[in-house]
Structures are given as C-alpha cells and as structure tokens.
Amino acid sequence: MAHRSRAALTALAALGGLIAGFCSLAAAELVSALVRPEAGPVTAVGGAVIDRSPAALKEFAVRHFGTGDKLALELGIVVLLAVFAMAVGVLALHHRRTGSAAVLLFGAVGAVAAVGRPEGSAPDALPSVVGAAVGAGVLFALTGRLTTAPPRPPASGSGSGSGSGEAYRAFDRRGFVITAAVATAVSAGAGLLGRRLTSSVQAGATASRHDLVLPVPDSPAPAVPAGTGLNIRGLSPFFTPNKDFYRVDTALVVPRLDAAGWRLRIHGEGVARPLTVGLHDLLRREIIERDITLACVSNEVGGPYIGNARWLGVRLADLLREAGVRPPSAGGPADQLVARSVDGMTIGTPVEAVMDGRDAMLALGMNGEPLPFAHGFPVRMVVPGLYGYVSACKWIEDIELTTFDAYDAYWVRRSWAQQAPVKTESRIDTPRSLASPKPGAVPVAGVAWAQHRGISRVEVRVDGGEWHTARLSAADNRDTWRQWVWEWPATSGRHTLEVRATDGTGATQTGRRAGTVPDGATGLHSVVVDVS
C-alpha cells in the first residue's frame, strides 16, 4: 500500500513538473510577443544548437529531415524539455527549493542563448527569464501540495493505537488538482494571448506584401522558347512553383518584415558613397526580370534542393557602382561582399562575380508575385552560378564590402569553402528508383544544370555500358536548368541507369563521388529499376 502511494506521489510530482514547464513556455510565449518572436526560449536554444552544430550534423539533418529539419529540431527540444520538467518535478518533491532553482537555471540557459544569437540584444533575455520565474513559482506551489506533513500527535486520552495508525496524513490531492488546473488555464490563456499579439504584429507585414504591386520590368525576361518543357510524366516542371521551391536556412522562425520599414545599408571598404535604400527606392530604379535556377550546396547527387524561378529585381552591380565600388579587376580594394540578414545570417559573395556582367540582383518578385516570406520578403539576393550559401541572402538588410582574408562568413566558419561556383550536375527524375516499368520503350528523363555555363549535352548509360546521347529540351538561357530525355529500349530484369552532363564550356560532369562539404557534392546520379 505504501509502495503504491509513493508511486502515485512520484507520478503526480512528474506531472507537476510538466505543468510547470508548460506554464513557463506559455509565459515566455507572451513575453516574446512583446519583445520579438525569435527571442522565445525554444527558438533561441534551437538557434544556438544550429549555430554550434558541426557541418556533418547539419548535413545529417538536411539529408534525413529535408526542409522539415527545423521542425524536427524544435520537436526534439520540446521532448527534452518535457523529460527535464518531469525529472525536476520529482526532484522538487524531495528538495523543493532545489527543484525550483533548477528551473531558474534552465531559464538562464535560454536567456544566454537568446542574447548570444548574432542578432540578439539584452531584451531578448526577458522571455526566458520571465518564463523561468513563472515555472519555478508554479512548481514550488504544486510540490507544496504534495509534501507530506509531520506526524500527528496521538489524540488526548487515546492509546498508541488510536486513529488509523498512519504516521503521516495524506498529501493535499484536492489542493494539487485545483492549483494545477488554475495554473494550466491561466497559462493557456497567456499563451493564446501571446499568439494573438504575435499575429497582430505580423499582420502589418502580411498586409504590406499583399499591397505590394510589382512593376512591369524595364528589361523583361525573353520569352521561354517552345520546347523548353518536355511534358513527360514524372519530370520536374521547368518553373518550380513557389510552394514547392526548396528552403534550406537556419531560421526557426521565418522573419516577417513590413515592406515599408525595410532598409538596406551598403558600406565598407572601397565604398566611396555609402547608401541606405528602402523598397520604394528600389522600385524607382531599372527593374529586370530573369529566369535563374538556384541550387543549395547541401544538395546531394540526385537531390531535391534545386529549383528554377522567374525573378524580378534590381541589378546589384548598379547599386554598387553608385556607391563607388570597383571590382578587384578594376583596382577595387574589396574582394568580398558580406550580406547580412535580419536573423543574423552572414553570406560572403565574390565582388567580382556580382560585377562581372551576370544578372546578380536584389530580387523583389518570384514567379510573378512578391517574394514569399519563407523566400526572403521583401528583398533577397540572387546571383546566378553560385551556390546559395555564398550568394542567396534572404531577408537582407546590410551589405558590407571587405576581403576574404579579413572576414569569414557564417558557413565558412563551419568548414565550408569561401567560394563555391555551382558544379555541373544532372538528375534522373523518371523512372524513380525501384520502379517497375514494362519492357519496351521507356522514357528516361530528368534535368541537368550548370548555371552561368549552360548545358550542351546529357548522356545516359545502362548497367555500366556505353553512353547514349539524350535529347535536350530547348535552352532558355545559360542560368537555368535544362530538361532531357532518352528513349530506353528496356529489357526484362534489374538494371542500373546513370546520367552525366556536359556544360557549355565542354567540361563533362565528373564521376568521382564526393560529399557536399566543403563546396558541393560530385558523382553520377543513378537509379535501379526492375523491368517486368
């Protein structure tokens, strides 16, 4: 009987820890709505984990969780918090003050993580501090209801066996339930209020995107040639819809900026005339429209982290020239352009690449609409021919001219190369691996890319045999991917299909297998199919 009572008491203590943890997070949610959403403890700790994760761990997350890697991280943090909360609840049952102090200590960890973020400031500590104080108070109150009382003295005139014979009276079950219910209800209300406040703040940003009318481009993209899309089932479309465009970044909370308040500062070494521009300043400049394929350096051979879109924006080189910037080839002192995002991300891009005549731009629109929030609204960088981690800064707010010797950007400090032109790559989209096509004519189709060089040839082979030239789609421009197809006379059995591409310079894709770190994966994409 006593054993069952102790087990029940321990279970209630663990439950009390969970409730205290919930109250802590709810209070932090409310305060972060008043400070900024990114200052919440889960987001702050998650961001700190991302910042300190080695490249191999980051690649593991992208490989296994894809664009859901951030959700997986946040769920993992919440699960760990739940386990921690239950353990602290049990600790507080026996050491009440120590348990509450443990909650405060964890709050301090969240506060340090929030302030230590690249974009962090002192007020960012408030959500974690207030949340920890609320959690510690709730835990102290709940464990007070579970703490047993001293022995009751025998009733006057009774013998030693009087009463029930229990040395201790039962814990205050009713008080525990009432305290838990009130704390949970109040915290749920606080959390919902925090969500409402956050939504109301973000409503302005949503409205500014909705109200933004994209201008007619002064330099429109050429019409896409007939035959650019091969219209083969299972083949990636030439233009990737915004909802399907890959997203790989470190932002656990997508920044939602009000277009009216957005500003971009251009300054640094070799900048004769520093500039600060707003969105409407950009809209008054020459607007260009271009079709450009973007690729992520984390894309493994045959991977999905690549997409093609029609971008609308302003030539970045024009702004740099207006600021008095000269490329290194013209005697400029800066060879690196460091773009900073509102979330603290830094991306280093070669100044020479931005100013060599390619269509590097500050993009405002994507596939005929303002940039989606997840893809950088209101303004992001797009530089053809470079992997995103050295060119495609989203939510950009600052451009500093410096040198590669003087500054290492975010990913360079994490074992990635300073410069990373996109490699010549190809992918089989159909048939899928382990598909079972019928014998006979089977279209083997996919995409190939070598941005800023273009694709001149694609070849396919079966079971390591001779290479067969595939039919290429019409080329849009050298900055976009290109579809291809080869009609395979399939025979029964298991077969391995491989593809390779040759770029516009005549260089053929290497078959040497290498991982994504430090500057992009290499190797030939292959699929295994069973023809039956």
Architecture overview:
The chain is an alpha+beta fold. Helix 1 packs parallel to helix 7 and helix 2 packs across helix 4. Strands 2-1-10-5-6 form a five-stranded mixed sheet. Strands 3, 4, 7, 8 and 9 form a five-stranded antiparallel sheet that branches. Strands 11-12-16-15 form a four-stranded antiparallel sheet, with no helix packed on it.
How are the SSEs ordered, and which strands pair?
Layout: H1 2-35, H2 41-52, H3 55-65, H4 69-94, H5 96-115, H6 126-146, H7 173-211, E1 263-268, E2 275-278, H8 279-283, E3 288-295, E4 306-315, H9 316-322, E5 336-341, E6 346-350, H10 351-354, E7 361-366, E8 369-370, E9 380-382, E10 396-402, E11 425-430, E12 440-449, E13 455-462, E14 468-469, E15 471-472, E16 482-490, E17 493-503, E18 525-531
Parallel strand pairs: 1-10
Antiparallel strand pairs: 1-2, 3-4, 4-7, 5-6, 5-10, 7-8, 7-9, 11-12, 12-16, 13-14, 13-17, 15-16, 17-18
Key words describing this protein structure:
single chain, 532 residues, five-stranded mixed β-sheet, five-stranded antiparallel β-sheet, 10 helices, globular
Strand order of the largest sheet: 2-1-10-5-6
Tally of contiguous helical segments: 10
Structural class: alpha+beta
Q: What do the pLDDT scores average to?
A: 92
Helix content: 25-40%
The largest sheet, given as strand count, sense and whether it forms a barrel, is: 5 strands, mixed
Rounded Rg: 30 Å
Instruction: Give the terminus-to-terminus CA distance.
Output: 67 Å
Report the portion of residues in β strands.
15-25%
Q: What's the number of extended β-strand segments?
A: 18
Q: Residue ranges: pLDDT <50 for 5 or more in a row?
A: 156-169
